[in-house]
Amino acid sequence: MAVNEGNKRYKGDGKGRQGGRKKSIPNKSSSELRELITKFVDQKWEDFVAAYDAITEPEKKCKITIDLMQFSVPKLASIEYKDKDKPRTLADELDEISGEKTRE
User: Fold this and answer.
1) What is the pTM of this model?
2) How far apart are alpha carbons 68 and 49 in whole angstroms?
């Protein structure tokens, strides 16, 4: 590690953040952009609904509906359990269920 000369700061000196935005303060440019997008969507919502209603193909309407759902309904994450000690096969699971050991 470098020697700290005077008041100079260096990465990893243990004194915390080195300037910039304070922790938990939102990014101003991101919040401004979100606000502009929200205003745009509010102004154009009626146009969107009219265009949606004009679509006659059910496949296109379903695709649009599914695409929009991601903004209101959270996606479910798949959960997978992995035993790190020993990988189990389907045969191992069946053996455990039946109570007997069929394979060595």
Assistant:
1) 0.46
2) 12
